[in-house]
């Protein structure tokens, strides 16, 4: 039995929202650790994929985010369900200077719900609502309060950020990673219950468990 | 000589897992072939996932039963070769969610002869982000040496 103890979780994380909302800017800033802000708009074609590893603090767990930066332009509509297929986390993005993008969020969430097959609400995993371009204070049309209310209505966590200002871009990705790990732990508990194993770790992992700081689900990060 | 009612996919009898596509050291792959449904292997995210079970000898398979949670679709391919290659499709089937309990799935064996050394199991979809496999049981006989010459009979 090896006690290397490194656990790598993987999630297909879809970033969706209206065209021009600022999805690619967020993804590229996060992926490049703040080095790459796309100043000129280059419309995403179909879907761009990149991978980023997030280490969960105080654990031996890392989450590989397979980020799918979806094209929001309507011409790609017929492909959206395909790119959402198998997603287990998502960021739903709107632009605080653009009312249309704010209003469209329920349409996008509906797509996510359809992809998850409605049967199992946990099947798609954690999701967040992201308000971006908050550097545009003068042109801002949607307030923080409106954003928070929408998030509450949609049942999502609320985040706001600015890719241009490199402000809080990482937070929604960290949250999703941590929530995905919580989901894994929860799933593990459930599987143990089904298998009739006491909630203690099975014998094979006792040693590993001792090395690991006690992690209660729900309070990581 | 083991009987047809014996599980051939047991680590204790020389079976092994040759390949898996995800690993959590707390839930090692051999948990699937220890004959015990309490211990398990769990995927760590994403689909598809694959498992190759290598039997100790060639077996003419009569039954494959898998104990799992949250699997939505199984595929199975078999290979007769010494090395796990040149697989042929055995079955592809949807699985209902076990909700609060185990899924106990008997794979369809459409052909009359399902002789194999290796079984490649694929999970292309789950009812949740993670699936767990608790036991893979494979039943069958060691194949009789193929008759040579005119003695071969049609059924
Ligand atoms: N001021 C400001 N502009 C931004 C910000 N993020 C993105 N932009 C600009 O908004 C425009 C669209 O950004 P993208 O990230 O390409 O938009 P998108 O959501 O990926 O659009 P599609 O690929 O068509 O779906 C670009 O011109 C960006 O420079 C931001 O935080 N602040
Ligand atoms: Mg884009």
UniProtKB/TrEMBL annotation, chain A:
User: Which keywords does the record carry?
Assistant: Cell projection, Cilium, Flagellum, GTP-binding, Nucleotide-binding
Q: Which SUPFAM superfamilies match?
A: P-loop containing nucleoside triphosphate hydrolases
Per the record, the domain of life is Eukaryota
| Pfam families, per database record | Ras
**Which GO MF term does the entry hold, naming one?**
GTPase activity
Q: Name one GO cellular component term.
A: intraciliary transport particle
Where in the cell is the protein located?
Cell projection, Cilium, Flagellum
Q: Which PROSITE patterns match?
A: RAB (PS51419), RAS (PS51421)
Q: Coiled coil: which residue ranges?
A: none
- Of which family is this protein a member? Belongs to the small GTPase superfamily. Rab family.
Cross-referenced NCBIfam families: small_GTP
Q: What is this protein called?
A: Small monomeric GTPase
Automatic annotation (TrEMBL), chain B:
Coiled coil start-end = none
Q: Name one GO biological process term.
A: intraciliary transport
Which InterPro entries would you find in this protein's record? FA58C (IPR000421), Galactose-bd-like_sf (IPR008979), IFT25 (IPR033558)
Domain of life from the UniProt record: Eukaryota
Would you name any one GO CC term? cilium
The UniProt record lists the F5/8 type C domain at 22-134
User: What is the name listed in the Swiss-Prot or TrEMBL entry for this protein?
Assistant: F5/8 type C domain-containing protein
Q: Which organism is it from?
A: Powellomyces hirtus
Its organism's taxonomic lineage begins at:
Eukaryota, Fungi, Fungi incertae sedis, Chytridiomycota, Chytridiomycota incertae sedis
